[in-house]
Write a structure and sequence with these properties.
The chain is an all-alpha fold. Helix content is 81%, strand content 0%. The protein has helices spanning 32-48, 51-185.
Length: 188
Amino acid sequence: MSGGGPEAAVGCEAPAAGGNKKKDSLGTAGSPAHLIIKDLGEIHSRLLDHRPVIQGETRYFVKEFEEKRGLREMRVLENLKNMIHETNEHALPKCRETMHDNLNQVLQRLQAATDSVCRLQQREQERKKIYNDHLIASENQHIIQWEDFMKEQHSKQAEVDEEHRRAVERLKEQYAEMEKDLGKFSTF
């Protein structure tokens, strides 16, 4: 292996171009010096020129990373697709059905509660109306009784005043007679 790159011309060797061959100052192409220089060039390129190796390793790493990443992303996407399909096919209809059943029950209970509350409010309003009517009737009756009582008191007051006036007149007459009788007795 030559290090993965093109072989560079080493020493005084010139590449062959066309039919012109330059003669090497060290000798012919198969000479031992030429082979040593060629081996030195290869050793130099393997030890000091790492670009071709690094480029190969980099390409390999990128390729592996992209493949693994692509496979991982494909697995994730496939799992997501399966979960969405499972949800759409099984969980969503079941949830929808459960929600529909429960909402119907909740709506029925809510309607029953609303009806009960309306009946209670209606009864309470009727009780308040009856109580208010009774209270107003009782108040009116008390007013009438008070007015009758006051009229009766005025008439009794007038009777008592009249009786008192008569009693005062009787007493005046009695005292006047007693004074006359005393006036008769005092002359003795």
